Structures are given as C-alpha cells and as structure tokens.
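Deliverable D2.4 — example input (structure tokens):
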C-alpha cells in the first residue's frame, strides 16, 4: 500500500476508546449502580439503539428550524429512524406498547449507550453511557421523588465519593412555569425562556448571559449569535429577580400564583419524606435549574460535584451534572392519549468516570492474572497443571504464550501489563517439588520466595 493511501488510525470527534484502569473503574461503577437500582426495586429493560423518529420526538435541539439537528437520523425505506438520544423516550414508547402487561407502578432501570450530535469536550461525548432509573404510574409524587434523591446519594457514596464531594439540587418546573404564565409569555417563547434560565450556571453565562438570551439575542466570545426569546424589559426583570431568590420560604412569599405555589408545596412534601431517611442533608433547593428538555413538567433534579475537575490539558472545567432527571406526565400520553405520570433520573456514567479518574481515593480493582513463566518447553505439560491448579482455586492466571522467549522478555511483558506476581519453575524446582514466586511490585533482591508446591495456593492468596 502506498504511503499516501494508508488509513489514519483515528476516531471521529466526540468518541473515545476506553481500556486499562479507566475501563475497569467504569465496570466497577456500573456494578455499584446496577446493584443499587435492583436494591431500590427496579427491573431491567433493554430497548433497541434505533427508534422511529416521530416516536422518539425532538426534545434536544434549540434550533426551531431544524428540530432534529442534535440527533443522528437515517432514512429507512419510507420512514426515518433515529439513534436514541436518551433512555426516557424509548421507555415512554415501551410503556405505551406494553401497558397492559406492566404492573400499576412500574420501576425499571436501563443501562445503555445514547447518541447526541452535539459539540463534544470536557467529559461530554457524542456517544456515552447512561444509567436510568424510572418510576411509572400513579404514586405519591413526594415519595417517588424523595426515593430518587436517596438512590442518588446511596449510589454515589458507594461509588467512592464522600458526602462533601457532591450536592443534589432540586426544584419544580411548576414554579417557573407559574411565573411564565403570570408574565403572559407566549407559548412559542416559553421553551426559549426555560432554556435560557437553564444556562445560568453554565460557563460564560451567568445573569448577564441569561439576560441576553431573554432579550433579543446573545453573542458569545467567538462572535456567534444565538437568537433570544425577545421578552420586554419588565418580563426580563421579573425573571432575573426570581433567579436571585435562594430560600424556599422567600419564594413562597414572592410567587403567589397558584401553579408556582403548587410546585413549592410539592418541594416541601419531598423534603418532608427525605427527613424520614438519612440523606436529607445531601439535597438543597436551587430554583435556577429547570432542565432544558421540554417533557419535564414537575419535580426536577441535578447532581453536581464539589471538587475541581480538569480537562486533558490540566485546565479546570465545569463538566455539569452527573445525575439529573425529573417528573413528566405528557411523554407517554403522546401514544396513549392519557397522562401516565413518571419520574426518573439518569446517571451520566462516562461523565462521572471522567471526574472519578482524577480522584486518588477511588481504588481500581483490576484483578490481573498471575503469570506462569515458561522456562523450558519440555515442562509445558507441568505448567498447564499449575495453571489448572490456580484457576480451580479462583486465581486468575495465564501461561506465557511464546516458549522461545527468555525469562527477561517474559518479565518485561509482565511489567508492561503491570502484573503483580510471576511463577518461575525450572528443572531444579520441578525436581525438588518447589515453586518460585516473584513479587513484581516488591523490593529488588527481596521479591523472590521459593516454597513447596503444596503451599502455592495459600502463598498466592496472601499476596493478591
């Protein structure tokens, strides 16, 4: 092949290979997350990567002229199909399709990849793993939503975080929706207003950035212009004043419209239920979170980390929420014609992984094998007997697969793989029924021990 025709071993932007310690830690996180989902009563669900485009809907894009711009869609005969961008829309389709077979309160969890055609960076990917827990059915909303908060706390603590390293922010979309209705903001502008508010804590925004998006337009540092909601000055002022309120009691006094009061009462009920458990202190109100997805209509939650996260260049970055979600009633009614309430959360596993890789407090359990070195091909059958003995006793092990390599090359292989132990058996060991264990992480000169063959398993288990 000519040099100019050689393929470039590269990935498209926003996609990532994961291997080594990073992948091992990811599997550890998934094990903890799934165990907690099951502990809280959920059943597993797996849906296809593709959904019919009209069924999955368009809840991401901010460009009204191109509502499917943030997803990957393809023609499939006379239909359009879309790679799922979250796990909630497929859940709504599944519940509508199988409602008669499901219990009146359906708890499901799903752990699958999702795909978004958006700008990557700082823990954001175009393909990433989400772990979702949802409760569908007519429940006491305070109980269901408090359960979500307790699940988030339990899971993150068991993943290895400390209590002061994350905070769960909660609010209710009814609060801001009541204000929007009171200000007579037209229906076609409402989603723009909600998405503008949702950007308050994003880098480069703040109150001034939100104000620009509530008005005619916002120009960012690159010169790009985002069309705003085009509200009048009084509407903008009242929304900005609302965003400055931090206390639930103050909010209750300021917003007197019935819908906002309903949302405030629902939040109070959640905190009452949280008081029955041990994680209430992990949860705080934050009325500036509204969740940009249009299908949320009540309780909403975002979980943020309280420690510094850096990008690959060592620069501190804001990676956003690592677990978020909320309540929805209209998502399933698109199919059924009746409202079936639901509420749920989604862990951004890859974003959480990106952050946790920077903490030394999380121990990665790699479970690497013991290497059985091949000193002489004539003893190959004996090496396989040792291999079988180790595996029978649940010890990960492998034989070096090239009988022509000398011991130095075999140990170089072990060191490159960061293995901890090697077993060395030559003619002397086999004649004396002994085995030499080399501790590859030990102090040079003190890292070899020769023991009787019958003590091999006990000594190995002491070292791994």
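Example output (designed residues):
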């Amino acid at each position: 092949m000519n040099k100019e025709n050689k393929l470039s071993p590269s990935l498209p932007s926003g996609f990532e290979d994961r291997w080594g310690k990073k992948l091992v830690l990811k599997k550890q996180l998934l094990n903890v997350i799934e165990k907690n989902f099951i502990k809280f009563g959920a059943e597993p669900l797996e849906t296809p990567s593709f959904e019919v485009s009209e069924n999955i809907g368009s809840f991401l894009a901010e460009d009204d002229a191109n509502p499917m711009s943030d997803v990957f869609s393809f023609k499939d005969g006379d239909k359009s199909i879309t790679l799922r961008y979250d796990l909630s829309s497929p859940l709504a389709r599944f519940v509508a399709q199988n409602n008669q077979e499901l219990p009146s309160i359906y708890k499901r969890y799903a752990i699958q990849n999702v795909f978004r055609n958006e700008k990557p960076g700082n823990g954001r990917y175009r393909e990433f793993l989400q772990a979702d827990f949802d409760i569908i059915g007519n429940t006491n909303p305070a109980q269901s939503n408090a359960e979500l908060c307790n699940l988030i706390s339990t899971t993150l603590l068991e993943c290895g975080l400390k209590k002061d390293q994350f905070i769960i922010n909660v609010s209710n979309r009814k609060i801001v929706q009541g204000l929007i209705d009171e200000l007579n903001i037209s229906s076609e502008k409402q989603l723009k207003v909600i998405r503008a508010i949702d950007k308050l804590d994003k880098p480069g925004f703040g109150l001034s950035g939100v104000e620009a998006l509530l008005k005619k337009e916002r120009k960012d540092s690159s010169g790009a212009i985002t069309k705003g909601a085009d509200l009048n000055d009084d509407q903008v002022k009242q929304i900005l004043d609302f965003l400055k309120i931090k206390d639930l009691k103050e909010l209750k006094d300021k917003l007197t419209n019935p819908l906002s009061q309903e949302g405030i009462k629902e939040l109070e009920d959640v905190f009452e239920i949280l008081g029955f458990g041990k994680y209430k202190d992990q949860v705080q109100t934050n009325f500036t979170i509204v969740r940009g997805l249009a299908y949320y209509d009540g309780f909403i939650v975002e979980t943020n980390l309280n420690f510094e996260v850096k990008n690959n260049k060592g620069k501190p970055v804001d990676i956003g929420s690592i677990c978020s979600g909320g309540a929805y009633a209209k998502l399933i009614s698109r199919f059924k014609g009746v409202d079936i309430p639901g509420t749920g959360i989604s862990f951004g596993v890859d974003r959480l992984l990106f952050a946790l890789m920077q903490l030394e407090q999380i121990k990665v359990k790699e479970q690497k094998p013991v290497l059985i070195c091949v000193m002489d091909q004539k003893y190959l059958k004996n090496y396989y007997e040792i291999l079988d003995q180790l595996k029978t006793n649940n010890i990960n092990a492998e034989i070096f697969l090239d009988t022509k390599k000398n011991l130095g090359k075999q140990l170089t292989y072990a060191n490159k793989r960061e293995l901890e132990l090697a077993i060395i058996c030559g003619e002397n060991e086999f004649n004396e029924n002994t085995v030499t264990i080399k501790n590859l992480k030990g102090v040079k000169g003190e890292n070899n021990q020769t023991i009787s063959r019958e003590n091999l398993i006990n000594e190995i288990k002491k070292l791994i």
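The domain at 20-168+256-356 is CATH 3.30.930.10 (BirA Bifunctional Protein; domain 2).
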